[in-house]
Specification:
8 strands, 5-stranded parallel β-sheet, globular, 9% strand, 467 residues, single chain, 21 helices
Length: 467
């Protein structure tokens, strides 16, 4: 039962990580541990009573819904405080009870697996995740520059690119590269500090309250490598920006490496002080884009091999077609599909993938065809009338084909319906245009990004337009 509990909870964690804000997930959910799955109830261990109460009030109904979807039956969840002593006591009780078949021992209130407390981390390695390395980072056309720059920084800190500024959307691998740099630098015996910008802000607030800003400065300035995740969140926080400005100057002046990540480039951080924005551009700025189809398949293959699973290529490709926004959702989808198949004793098939991912795929409202035409016309700077015209100029033909693709994929219109909507075109012309865009977005990064942005805009403003 313990193995099943671990499988089930890891699958739920993968989904929660995709849906929750990173800070909330890291604070309340990441360090939870599955304890038991028995008689229709999953017991989950947490660090303290405060975390237990937060999870009970904020996440219990969500977790129950996900468990029911995964196991195809109602499953309750109980969050309990887990301690090392109670873990050892429980394990001892289970070993004693096993020969007698007594399954009625009440779970002690646990905190985490004993192995996690075996080796307390050093001050420099405390927040660095050893699982994130360059060896298990899958390189594709979408992240090649960011990967190469990170490798260069790790091999020659403060001499390659300083600062290194990585930016991109959620779940694309920025944090992975940040930790990979940290792990490589730790192996060289350097003092490394990794924090999110929220942690940096909270540390500063606590230091001001306790009148101990000197200790705060020592913490962040007596390091060889400073890694800060999601730096965009210091925007608008004057005291934090002031302190970070001086920290940045001190470290840079002492030839210490600084690596920052953000969801947008420095120029787009409009509420950030100009003096900080300009410093962020002193070194190298590298972006990470959503992975293309081939990279998504490669990531899934790597993750399957890492988990010791043999997954047919057809299944990997099916998942890759469903999940195309980020790597986090890819990993969560693979975990769910494997757990779904194993827990239900079913073979891996495209139909099982569709069933397993049914509640992970966004429930999108129907998009009015006229809304799609208007959104495409605005994005490409032409009128809806020109989309419907007979013009074959490239400036009109490409957006018209994008409209065909979106009308087919998102409005679910038939080929003849699309042809009629676009000026009475033949269904074979529509089929050609649709297939051309479907193929092109897997190889053309700019077009893929444009289509993703169009979709985001369509679903963000989901009220149908009137014809």
């Amino acid at each position: 039962m313990e193995k099943q509990a671990v499988q089930v909870w890891q699958t739920v964690l993968g989904q929660l990580q995709m849906e929750m804000p990173k800070a909330a997930f890291d604070t309340w959910v990441r360090d939870t541990r599955p304890v038991d799955l028995h008689d229709g109830k999953l017991v989950v261990g947490v660090h303290n009573a405060y975390a237990r109460d937060w999870l009970e009030s904020r996440l219990r109904s969500t977790v129950r819904r996900k468990l029911a979807g995964l196991l195809a039956r109602p499953v309750d969840v109980d969050f309990v405080v887990w301690t090392e002593e109670s873990l050892a006591r429980r394990q001892g009780q289970e070993e004693m009870a096993a020969p007698h078949g007594n399954g009625h021992d009440q779970p002690s209130r646990p905190r985490s697996h004993a192995r996690t407390a075996a080796l307390p981390p050093s001050h420099s390695a405390a927040a660095i995740n050893p699982r994130y390395t360059f060896e298990n980072f899958v390189v594709g056309s979408n992240n090649r520059l960011a990967h190469a720059a990170s490798m260069a920084v790790a091999e020659n800190p403060a001499n390659a690119y300083n600062p290194l500024f990585l930016y991109g959307g959620v779940g694309l691998g920025k944090t992975h590269l940040l930790h990979a740099i940290g792990n490589a630098c730790l192996a060289q015996g350097l003092v490394v500090r990794y924090v999110s910008s929220e942690e940096f802000t909270n540390d500063l607030i606590n230091a001001i309250r306790s009148h101990d800003t000197e200790a705060f400065r020592d913490k962040y300035r007596k390091v060889d490598v400073l890694l800060i995740d999601d730096i965009q969140f210091i925007a608008g926080k004057e005291s934090t920006q002031e302190e970070f400005f001086h920290t940045f100057n001190t470290l840079h002046g002492q030839n210490k490496q600084i690596v920052l990540t953000s969801d947008r480039p420095p120029k787009a951080l409009v509420t950030l002080e100009e003096r900080l924005r300009s410093r962020f551009e002193w070194g190298l700025t590298a972006d990470i884009q959503p992975p293309d189809f081939e990279t998504r398949v490669a990531i899934l293959r790597f993750k399957a091999e890492e988990a010791g699973k043999t997954v047919p290529m057809e299944i990997l490709e099916t998942i890759a077609r469903y999940m195309h926004t980020n790597i986090r959702e890819l990993e969560g989808a693979l975990t769910r599909v494997l757990a779904y198949a194993e827990l239900r004793g079913m073979p891996l098939t495209p139909q099982l993938v569709e069933a397993a991912l049914a509640d992970m795929l966004p429930r999108r409202q129907e998009i009015a065809p006229e809304r799609i035409l208007q959104a495409v016309a605005e994005a490409f700077g032409i009128s809806v009338e020109r989309l419907r015209s007979k013009s074959r100029a490239h400036k009109v033909a490409l957006p018209r084909q994008v409209a065909m693709y979106l009308l087919r994929e998102d409005a679910k219109l038939s080929l003849p319906q699309i042809g009629e909507l676009l000026g009475g075109r033949d269904h074979t012309t529509v089929k050609y245009g649709y297939e051309k865009i479907a193929d092109k977005i897997e190889s053309d990064e700019r077009l893929r990004r444009d289509v993703l942005l169009l979709r985001e805009k369509l679903y963000r403003h989901s009220t149908p337009l009137r014809a």
